[in-house]
Amino acid sequence: MHNNTDMSQSMSIDTSLSTSFEELVAEIGDTLKLARNNVAKHVNAGLLTAYWNIGRLIVTYEQSGKDRAAYGDETLKRLSERLSSQYGKGFSRTNLYHMREFYLTHRIFQSVTGKLTWTHYCTLLDLSDEQKRNFYENEAANAGWSVRELRRQIDSMLFERILSAKNNASETDKLTLAERGIELSKPSDIIKDPYVLEFLDLPDHAPLESELERALVAQIEKFMLELGRGFMFVGTQQRIPVGPDHDRVDMVFYNKPLRAYVLIELKATKLMASAVGQMNEYLNYYATEVNDPDDNPPIGIILCTDKNNIRAEYALGGLSNAIFASTYTFRLPEAYLLEQQVRKVLEISEDEREKTVAHLEDKAHAD
Question: How many angstroms separate the Cα of 113 from the Cα of each of 6, 47, 90, 104, 196?
Answer without folding.
Answer: 21, 12, 21, 15, 28
